[in-house]
């Protein structure tokens, strides 16, 4: 062993028990009581929890949008992630029109190999689903990618995928051991409301929410679930924010269909009230944050297992870029931050008794690993697993302030939020990369995680 973390309480998705963890060459090699080794560095974790590092299954680092790009690139995003106890991300590669998908994936891969501070893997956002792109699915799956995402929104010329193409992609993905994901909102209703609002001079961010209310997302989720159940294909609904969409997913899951839902910390903490007040533009994301009824339903969905994954959809923009759309919400680049806040927030809710620590590990770490083909290497603490570990101090109080965050964004929607308990150390494959509010990692340390095809 080269490292022993002693006297802590290990928490996985299934178990909570007191034990020491022995690590060698980046892997967990021993779990037991009173582990000793003369040459191993020893860390005392008395009174602390030892958790698997979080896996953020939905990030958009350096994503181009509205003639700008999201504020965190690979380096700053993975640096910030580590400071919040996240040790792996699944980042969306944006397929570039006119370029082969594999070309885009390889370029992204080269960038991450040089820049990433933590392990990473990719999903693909498809901007134009052509027959040529579908032909590349197999190569992408062989490369280690098992999720492709399409959009129901935006315009026919840009991003939007029609239902026929979506179903074709779902059937092909199933055959290859991959899962289609869909951004589910109804573009026609958004456009109808937007035209009307802007003609009436109603451009304030509140109308971003008004143009994409619960029914806009619900109809699209129901449609996606309808096609997935009609053709019996797996489906992933990322960033789910509405109650009735979740009801439909629960119904389909109860009937045995392979439908997975993900929600995000901002939908669990904030409500649509945020769009009424100063700074409302900073909360503009799609789907927008919904009302309290949806928020309660999302929490219930996590507890009963119908929401399998909590991930961030991290896609922040600088204040001036958000403010450019204060008079016309359609000009606000969509997306919010969360990469450094997800695990601390969810663990804080566990620390306050809202849900168990095991459940947080399940939705933030072990489910992303199991459901997307990288368990048991990731997502748990077990002999042979990567030593991606977080030492968590349940006694520490942490109040979020922009200057205490490590991301490249000049503000945070989490400003002033107090967390009960906080990660104090993060290890990536046995290497300490975050230590008591100080980042100590290394650029380029992160490795590509090849995800297995899904059975
Ligand atoms: O508002 C969001 N969700 N921004 C991230 C990019 C996307 O459309 O998923």
TrEMBL record:
Which InterPro entries is this protein grouped with?
A: Amidohydro-rel (IPR006680), Hydantoinase/dihydroPyrase (IPR011778), Metal-dep_hydrolase_composite (IPR011059), Metal_Hydrolase (IPR032466), Metallo-dep_Hydrolases_sf (IPR050378)
A Pfam family of this chain: Amidohydro_1
Q: Which residues carry this modification: N6-carboxylysine?
A: 149
State a single Gene Ontology molecular function. Answer: metal ion binding
Keyword Hydrolase in annotation: yes
Which cofactors does this gene product need? Zn(2+)
Q: Where is the Amidohydrolase-related domain?
A: 50-432
Its keywords, alphabetically, are:
Hydrolase, Metal-binding, Phosphoprotein
A single cellular component GO annotation? cytoplasm
Which PANTHER family does the entry link to?
COLLAPSIN RESPONSE MEDIATOR PROTEIN, HYDRANTOINASE/DIHYDROPYRIMIDINASE FAMILY MEMBER
**What is the official name of this protein in its record?**
D-hydantoinase
